[in-house]
Specification:
alpha+beta, 6-stranded antiparallel beta sheet, two-stranded parallel sheet, 8 strands, 14% strand
Amino acid sequence: MKRNLTRWLVGLQIVSVALTGCAPTQPFFYGERGDLAHYIDRVQRIEYPDLDKEPLPEVSQSMEPLSLDNQNYEYLDLTLEEAISYALSNVQVIKALPGTQRQNADIASILLASPVAQLSTVFDPAIVANTTNSQPLALDGNGNRVLARGASRANQVGGVEDALSEFDAQVSAFLAYNNTNRARNVGVDSDGKSSNIFNPTPFLADDGNAQLAISKRTATGGVATARSQTVYSSNNIPLGIARAVPTDYTQIFEAQVQHPLMRGRGTLMNRIPIVLARINEDVALVDYEERIRNLVREVEFAYWDLYAAYWNFETARTARDSSALAYKIARAKFNQGNAANGVAQAAATYHDFEAQFKAALAGSGPGEPGLLGRERNMRLLLGWAATDGRLIRPIDKPSVGLAKFDWESVKAEILTRNLDLRKMKWSIKQRQLELISAKNQILPEVNLSLTYRWVGVGGQLFGNGNNPPFPQGGSAGAFEELFGGNYQEGAARLDFIPTALGSRRQLTDISRAQMDLVRSHRILEAKEESAVSLAQDYWLKLNGIHDQMTSFFQAYQENDRLVQIFQTKFEMGDSSNQDFIIDNLLRASQQRARAGLNYNLRVAEYNKYMVELHALKGSLLE
């Protein structure tokens, strides 16, 4: 009965498995909904970092922005030298873009939206100098340094200290213990004991091994290693003929030198990674100098733009006040009959100048920030608060005389000191070193290894001195025997490992390095051509803008004279020709304002192009 019941249960289980098949039971989760709302709510919840970092006082204590309605400020006179000094003293994140092209975009927007990796700081050269390779120094089982024999490339090395660390001495040590308990394949007597005194069965042994080594890479490409080994042995081999003492110690001290004879040989090859690392640091310094140069350039640009903005504001105010006076007189004297046209024209001109006055102060849109916008941009470059109750006012006068440069001197300075050309020349030096390293890889690897060791064997590790030589008496120490210098050994080994048949990879690497070098030379030539062309462009613009500046200044003077003439006639109240007088007065006022605006802009541009030429020559930071 019990057997039948078991059969029925087994059969029922088989049928159940067959009916259910491979359809798994869906998991059940607490709070589960079909639209996964609970999961989505958890995953898409916005979190804010809990960072213990207070904002700068320049940010947290900044005042309400200055505007047309808020003009509660006092003037702060600032020289150009002071502005540059403040900017360089407060710089942490360099508020300037790389390259030689002028910045037309909003610096604040660029800094806020740029990824961290694209921003430059004063820490960048130090970060490059402290870049390290994450791979540790490699050692073999004997404590010898294992050197990488591949070609060196500039983008695979860190800083100089990291490259020099390849020549640091590396200490290694290990301690090993082994226990043996096994039968031997030897003849035994009736008691099951081995008749072979050299091979007892079972064989019981305790063995230990300790090693301490120090290994260092040499400047010529070799490896020098000093090594100490201690070996302990204890087993059940019977004392007598087979064994003098139950335990013995072996102490070894050896010196080993491995040196390449072909690939990787010589100081030239082994100093290439260090030189590449040093050039990487030099390139980082050039990049840093470029950003600082651009910062100084932007500060000077902002200074002269602010200077021009003040004069544009003053010109707009003068034009507005003049048109307001004309409108007031016209309305008082000629606000009847046919003279109403002149009054309306004077009113329209006044409102136009009023709008220009407000735009000159507060700005009129992208590219026209106005006086307050220019001042705020200057504050950002100086590292000051956006508003602190003071309004920066430039007091240095711009250069208006024609600047004279010697073309040959300018050209020589550009080819010698230009930052972009200097960085490209460093790149060529790196390509030359990479080519030398690539050519060395086609040589076979031929390594010579020489080893010399001192050996001491004793029944004890140290001994108590004045013991007979081991194994006599068995009480001599291993160190005692070692220092006796009676046992010395030597070894020599020559390894030969050529490249793979055909040397395809090595030849391809040489071709790549050669093409990289040629490419870098062509790029340098193109950059030199571009630099000289850009210098000529700045040279011509300096002369052209100076001529325009002179013309606009003369136009401003002539229109100012016309304004005074027609204003005198206008104030006299000549009613016979009043429309003509009002029309010419307003027209002369507009032309005077336009000439003054253009003159101020040309003065700023003239000084900015002198800055551009000095930046191109590499003399801006002097």
